[in-house]
Amino acid sequence: MRVAVLISMVLALIVGCDNKGTDTSGAISGYVYEAGTSEPIAAVEVTCGGVSFVTGIDGEYEIFGIATDSQTITATKGGYNSYSATVNVETSTTHNIYLTLSTPSSTTNQIRIECPVNVPVPIQDTTIAIDVYITSDVNIGGFSLGFHYDSEDVEIIDATPGPALPPDPLLLTTFIPADNLALIGFVDFSGVTPITPQNDTKLFSLIMRIPAGISSQWIDIDSSFVPPVSQFMLAPQGGGTIYPSYHDCGSADIHVGN
Do 119 and 242 lie in a common domain? Predict the structure, then answer.
């Protein structure tokens, strides 16, 4: 069971489509928008032909080197309903994706960041803490929570445990500053100290480095797929996968300015 929980946390299944032919000159690109608006969505995992791409702040995706054939394209992100469509992939195919917001029936199984965080422009390099809270209705044996931040000036460099975690937890962290990504994970290797059901309890704090003299700006921190296989997910102790809703302050999570 412990092995199964670990696998379910770390190896989130990337659902794509089989390459049915030998011609791999196919390419598909486009933008991901929030349905009913022209707002692009960042940090969406788009997958087709066994190849995945994570959108940037402009919502654009590009996938190359897949079979020219009828393919299934999928798009996933926490807080939105999953998307799936069949497209005829050619050497240059354009396909825009529109995601609809998910509407949880209750406040259970959610991740929330405490925001907005306000920080003056520092005169020397400094760090700030962004608190991340969990609400859940089951014992959680592990989690994999990826985050994307939309500023090239700052960097998430660490994570510190909160009271929702069991004593002396081992946080598994990966930081990819070149892509503005951070992945925080946890596994109950013992099988006897899960995260018990919580009601908006601090899970951990993201530690962000703010350099001296940074320009005034708003920074968005969003849930994100982190390559190669880590989705935004909780692993219940009893098995299965939960994709929690994500709650933040939109594009105004952090304000740097005087």
Answer: yes
Going 159 to 164 to 169 to 170, the CA torsion angle's sign is: negative
Element (H, E) at 27: strand 26-34
Say if residue 117 is in the same domain as residue 89.
Answer: no
Q: Which of 148, 114, 55, 113 is nearest to 244 (CA)?
A: 113
For residues 54 and 174, state if they share a domain.
Answer: no
Domain that holds residue 93: 13-99
DSSP 44-83: -EEEETTEEEE--TT-EEEEEEE-SSEEEEEEE-TTB--E
Whether 61 and 184 map to the same domain: the answer is: no
Number of domains observed in the structure of the chain? 2
CB 128 within 8 A of CB 253: no
Q: Residues near 174 by Cβ (< 8 Å), separated by ≥ 6?
A: 181, 182, 183, 185, 226, 230
The answer to whether the pTM exceeds 0.70 is no
Q: Let me know if residue 37 belongs to a domain.
A: yes
Please state, in angstroms and rounded to a whole number, the distance separating the CA atoms of residues 100 and 139.
29
- 163 and 208 in a single domain? The answer is yes
pLDDT tens, residue by residue, 64-94: 999 999 999 999 987 788 899 999 999 999 9
Q: What is the CATH number of the domain that holds 76?
A: 2.60.40.10
Q: Which two tokens stand for residue 218?
A: 């708003």
For residues 14 and 46, the answer to whether their CB atoms sit within 8 Å is no
